[in-house]
Amino acid sequence: MADRIRIGVLGASGYTGADLVRLALRHPNIEIAVLTANSHAGKPMKAVFRHFSHVELPDLVKVEDANWGSVDAVFCGLPHGTTQAITKEIFESYPAIKIIDMSADFRLRDPAAYKEWYGLDHAATEIQPEAVYGLTERYRHQIAASRLIACPGCYPTAVLLSLLPLTTHALIDPNDIVIDAKSGVSGAGRGLKENTLFCEAGEGLSPYSVGSHRHMAEIEQEIGLSVGQSGLRVNFTPHLIPMSRGELCTSYVRLAPGHTAQDLRHALVETYKDEPFVTIADQGVLPQTQMVRGSNYVVVNVVPDRIPGRAIVISTLDNLVKGSAGQAIQNFNVAYDIEETTGIEQLPLFP
What we know:
Blueprint: E1 5-10, H1 15-24, E2 30-36, H2 45-48, E3 60-61, E4 73-76, H3 83-93, E5 98-101, H4 111-118, E6 132-133, H5 136-144, E7 148-150, H6 154-168, E8 172-184, H7 198-201, E9 206-207, H8 215-227, E10 235-241, E11 247-255, H9 261-272, E12 278-280, E13 298-304, E14 310-317, H10 321-335
Parallel strand pairs: 1-2, 1-4, 2-3, 4-5, 5-7, 6-7, 8-10, 12-13
Antiparallel strand pairs: 8-11, 9-10, 11-14, 13-14
């Protein structure tokens, strides 16, 4: 492995792309060679994000002007529907490049499901089978051998890390899961939208995409795979919280016969005892977004429900780090046989 791996970032002017750049700048094995942002092409990165005023970075360029021959890996932070064709083009000319995709374009294993949820025909069905779902703690070995890594969405990351060990070990009923999810406004992206204006989102709590949020498809896909059941359904409702970053998911589950909430907690402790970024909180300690802000950590815990036979599983992460850019760096490290925690060791920022 070379000491420095040259990377490009597609969509560097979005929140996800910017956090990827922030983390990559302090990664000892990364050299940032290409940054794209069509609407800001020609500008220096510090003109788009003032917190980069202290560092030297390549100027932003249009996607079509990017020199992919100068990079070893590409991080994609573009909206869904735009990454597939670009990925296909890059692989046709530079098949050795690794692509770590932070968009939704390769997360769903079935192209028909992609069309159902995103309303678009899949533009790269021939390479979709190569894509590995980039939930690092679940698919680490596959990620290490892949050139196309589809990083999960932020909500699926928080939910799946907390529930997959429980469904895999048949500790809960996979057909009776209710997820109440809340995310900071950065999860909606940097584009101008009325519902994310300060006066619209501030001092309030708003549900959105009720019964139809696209991240539901990933959650159902992966939980279904864990129990060998196609067509599995979960109840998932997301909410917008008036804060910049952070995410908290509360999952209400039915215990499998003969099991207790303590059994769930024990399974999580055993599953993640050697994982650097998943923390099972001490008994009785409830996960809070303040525990993870600005970091690649996930905090999980289980509480017994007062309703017999049920339990409550709570998980929290930073939607821009472990929920996106941090997990992408973690997958990059796995793909290049670099120590997995490299560049993402930051402790949470508080207050």
